[in-house]
Structures are given as structure tokens and as C-alpha cells.
Amino acid sequence: MFLNSLSEPNLKKFSDWVQSLFGYGVNINRKSNHISINLKYENDDVNVIDTGYGVSQILPVLGQVWWAKNRPVRNLYFTKKTTIVAVEQPELHLHPAHQALLADAFVSGVKSEGKSEDIDVSYIIETHSEALINRLGELIYEGCFNENDVQILIFDQDDIDKNKTIVKESYFDSKGILQNWPFGFFTPEVRL
Question: Is 137 within 8 Å of 177 (Cβ atoms)?
Fold first, then answer.
């Protein structure tokens, strides 16, 4: 319903943004009392129902990422509007290539690029996606954003007291390489 609530100009802006990231736009078809969401390709429209499950699951996330930076802002007392968007496992049901593109979407949502400077957006993303995390490193390496703009926290079971959770911090260096990353997090440990 969020997409249906957008004005035509905002729906076009959202569609163009999704197109720039994922290679397809978004269109809403309204017939009688029915609303359908179509993905717009160069020569074809495909109903989202006829695509993979992951696409239908990621559209609401993309909508919130886009809206967090593009929503109208009323400046009361000339203060900056801070928004925090929390997303739990946005990579579920997505192809690894699309998981990586989520990093581009999140970085795009943080950067201004002509959007309102009065909106400051931060994301809390809970993920287990190697593709998403590696892409963040690539984007740092490519100079798309600064390594200091990312904080990675790892919640792990305490080695001594299994009922405790400890929080460790990992980070990217200026070349986008993960530092202080726990061994075996993405790949299973090899037991000899």
C-alpha cells in the first residue's frame, strides 16, 4: 500500500531509483478495486507475483530506504531531522547478487546526492549476508563512502559462560578490508 500511496511524481522517482540499482523499475496498476505491482523492464512489465519471492520481499525495504531520504520534511526550529531505519535480514530469499546490491541501496540512502540536507538517515541492519558485507567493503574501496560511516557489531556467545552474549566490533579499513572479523563466521571451520 505504501507504493500506491505515493504521488505519481514520487512513484516515478522511486521507480527510477530502483531501476538505477536493480535494473528494473516499479509500476502500479489500478483496475477496479485491485492493485498490482509490476516490475518495469525495457520492453516488458512483469507482475511481481510472477517473479521470485525475494523481489516481493525486498520492495518494502527499498520503499522505506527511499522514503527515509525523500519524504517531505517540515523544519520546525530549523533542526536537522534524524531518521533511523532498522531492517532485520533484508537479504532473505534474495540471490547473492541482489544481496550485494542492497549495500548500494543503503549507501544511496545515506548519501545526499541533491536530496534534502535536512534529513540525516542511519541504518541498523541485522544480516548474515557475506555478499552484502563484502559489497560494503567494495563501495569503501571505490570511494563511494567512508569507512568511518559503517560500524559492524558482532553478537557472539561467550566462550566461558554460554548464557552470555558478548559484542565485538569489526570495522573496514580505508581500503574496504574487514578488520577484527571472527574466524569461521562465513565459512565453516575446517576440522583436521
Answer: yes
Pairing of strands 165-172, 34-40: unpaired
| Sign, CA torsion 90/94/99/103 | negative
128-162 confidence digits (pLDDT tens): 999 999 999 999 999 998 999 999 999 888 889 99
pLDDT, mean of residues 37-53: 90
Give residue for cell 540512502.
Answer: 109
